[in-house]
Structures are given as structure tokens and as C-alpha cells.
Amino acid sequence: MKLSTRSRYGTRMMADLAQHYADGPVRMGDIAERQNISIKYLEQLIIPLKKMRLIKSSRGPKGGHMLARPPEEITVGEIVRVLEKGFNLTRCIDIPEVCDRSPECRTRTIWERATQAMYNELESVTLSQLINGPKAAVGL
């Protein structure tokens, strides 16, 4: 199991926006340069994040993108859920019908619990904690 590039780069982009939250809208080119991610890729990531109201945009000479809520109110889990679209350890967690054994499967429960544990951890870390370093991210 591994997170897709979408989640990793999306989280980096959101952390960049969190670092510049007080500065107002941030230009896509600035994020791309700081994070070494192509503008085209960032544009693809912004669409679902805007749709889920995690990012807002403004047009014009001083326009750009910014977090729709303060960094301490957005979790890494929210970002991953939006960008992964149903990320689970096994397919049968989302769609039990894919496996004839789902109703009586002895291992399905552990995959569900492991998936939930992963999301619980991601939900426990805010962008504010993330940008303030690893000690803040784990609550130390």
C-alpha cells in the first residue's frame, strides 16, 4: 500500500498554502517553484480541493489560491480523502460485492480496522501542525 502522487503533492501544495495563509492569495507559479511540481499537475489537484471547499481562488492581478479555512481546521486526512477517492487497503471494503467471500470473510474486518486506523492518524494532524514541524504533528 502506498499513497498516490496526488495525495503527496496535494498535501505539499496545501502545506505551502498554509505557510502563506496570512499573506493572502498565492500564485500557482510560486507554489510550483517552491515545491518543484509542475503548474499543470497542481491545476489538476486544485479542482477537487476547490470542489470540496478546502481551497478558494480569486482572480485579478493580486489573485491566486488560498486555504478556504485556517490551517488549524484542515487535516491531512481531509486532503487524502479528496485526492484518493476511496483509498482503502482492499477493494472489498468499499465494494463488498467484488468478493463472494465478503459476508463471511475472516480477514476483511482487519483490513477495515487497519484502513480506519490509517485515516484516524491522518485526521489527527492539521496543516498547522504539519508546517510547524514533526513534533507538533505528533502532539509532542
How would you describe what is shown here?
Helix 1 (5-19) runs antiparallel to helix 4 (76-84). Helices cover 53% and strands 6% of the residues. The chain has helices at residues 5-19, 28-35, 39-51, 76-84, 91-94, 108-123, 127-131, 134-137; strands at 55-58, 64-67. The chain is elongated, with a radius of gyration of 17 Å. The chain has a single domain, classed as Arc Repressor Mutant, subunit A (Orthogonal Bundle), CATH 1.10.10.10. It contains 8 helices and 2 strands. Strands 1-2 form a two-stranded antiparallel ribbon. The model has no long low-confidence stretch (mean pLDDT 88). By secondary structure, it is mainly alpha-helical.
Keywords:
single chain, 140 residues, mainly alpha, Arc Repressor Mutant, subunit A, two-stranded antiparallel sheet
CATH class: Mainly Alpha
Q: Can you tell me the CATH superfamily?
A: Winged helix-like DNA-binding domain superfamily/Winged helix DNA-binding domain
Low-confidence stretches: none
Largest sheet composition: 2 strands, antiparallel
Shape: elongated
How many helices? The count is: 8
Number of DSSP strands?
A: 2
Encode the helix/strand succession as letters. Answer: HHHEEHHHHH
Secondary structure blueprint with pairings:
Elements: H1 5-19, H2 28-35, H3 39-51, E1 55-58, E2 64-67, H4 76-84, H5 91-94, H6 108-123, H7 127-131, H8 134-137
Antiparallel strand pairs: 1-2
Helix pairs in contact: 1-2, 1-4, 4-6
